[in-house]
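Session log. Operator J.P. requested a structure for one protein chain; no other inputs attached. Running the standard single-chain path with token output.
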Amino acid sequence: MYRRIRRARKFLFFLGLISLLLHVAAPDRVPLWIVLTLFGGWLAAFGYGLFHVAMTRRTAYACPYCGWVPYALDAWKCKGCGKRVDVFRQMGICSRCGHQHEEFMCLRCRGVAARPRWLRLS
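Structure written below.
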């Protein structure tokens, strides 16, 4: 879901930028309300993306090296099939090929640690 929102956000931004340039070049052909609507859609998608990421944190886990709390995103790549997976969702098991991931990499500090070390005890 998050990746679709990121793509929509990029699309709306560039469409808004192009319409802004066209409005500056020919204001009688491209009305200002089109430009404002596109940038408003971009701003809404940007805000939703930030809200979605902030609300979907895996609070039961933390990096043993830097303390970073991972997001509930398909951000890790399966070593077996290459699919993007959320390694914390199903205890490190890939939903496509069933590969068991024993170690997880921190997306912030790039430290690699076994799953039990990621569990937060407090």
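Operator note: The chain has two domains: 2-55, 57-122.
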